[in-house]
Amino acid sequence: MTEDERRETAVKRFWELAEESLESARRELEYGSFVFAFNRIYYTAFYAVSAVLMQDGRHFTKHAAVRSALHRDLIHTRKLRPEHGVFFDRAFENRQQGDYWPFFTFAPEDVQQEIAACASFLEDIRPLIRSLE
Known about the structure:
Blueprint: H1 3-31, H2 34-54, H3 63-75, H4 82-100, H5 108-125
Helix pairs in contact: 1-2, 1-5, 2-3, 2-4, 2-5, 3-4
């Protein structure tokens, strides 16, 4: 397998993980597991951004680096709308609070709103992934 083929395979896998994570968030909402839903919402966005970055051979092991690249390369260049940057930052913070603050809770309507924002994020980021065309 060539380097380009490996990269394309990784891009497609990141995208599959993004789609699977969004479905998982919906299931967690249905089951009333709001903290887990927010975790999946964040990872949906994280995997989607990772797919875009990977197609150019960029892969980061730190979440802060992915977040920074999103703002620098996709938001500031206007490839994505600014509200998607706000969404990503909010998803990151919500995941942090849910994962690391044991008494933090979320309301079901907040989860529903974030799932809708996440679906919009995926809809707008998908055209940026050349191998999915």
